[in-house]
Specification:
By secondary structure, the chain is of the alpha/beta class. The protein contains one helix and 13 strands. The protein has one helix spanning 2-24; strands at residues 33-35, 38-41, 49-52, 55-58, 63-68, 78-81, 86-91, 95-98, 104-106, 118-123, 130-133, 143-145, 148-151. Strands 1-2-5-7-10 form a five-stranded mixed sheet, with no helix packed on it. Strands 3-4-6-9 form a four-stranded mixed sheet, with no helix packed on it. Strands 8-11 form a two-stranded parallel sheet. A hairpin with a 2-residue loop joins strand 1 and strand 2.
């Protein structure tokens, strides 16, 4: 009888230890992934976004929170949304400064199907976000309000 109790206790401890290892070894989306000079919360690397050669490319409509590893220091890494992608992004301390390329690119409709890149961007509360190209903070974007261009 005593042996059965010991076996059950050992089995129970083994299961509990296995559960502990699986919980502590899991990387949650809110823990974030560092790619280049960015930290990404949400989504999955190489499914919802990828990073190569200084370019963070958004691949899906999954909501992603993007911030610099060190928001106080500008990076030359860029963010690109390819044609046919409708990105949902939260900028929570993005600081990009480029001299030759746009820090943020929405790839236009190349084949006339009306499906160029789109992005819905939320600026997180209590964060500073800077996108600068060639010294101008607005040279990288066309701003629209109610279908009227307000800055180009």
């Amino acid at each position: 009888m005593q042996m059965k109790k010991k076996k059950k206790l050992i089995l129970l401890l083994t299961i509990c230890f296995g559960m502990f290892l699986s919980v502590t070894g899991t990387v949650k989306a809110e823990d974030g992934v560092e790619v280049g000079n960015f930290r990404i919360d949400g989504g999955q690397l190489n499914a919802d976004y990828r990073y190569a050669s200084g370019v963070l490319t958004i691949l899906s409509d999954q909501t992603l929170t993007i911030k610099n590893k060190n928001p106080a220091t500008a990076t030359t890494d860029r963010i690109v949304i390819p044609e046919n992608v409708k990105a949902n992004l939260i900028f929570a301390g993005v600081n990009i400064k480029t001299s030759a390329n746009s820090p943020f690119t929405l790839t236009p409709d190349a084949n006339g199907d009306g499906k160029g890149a789109m992005a819905h961007i939320i600026l997180a509360d209590s964060t500073t976000n800077k996108l600068v190209s060639g010294g101008s903070a607005l040279s990288w974007i066309t701003l629209w309000r109610n279908n009227n261009v307000i800055h180009r």
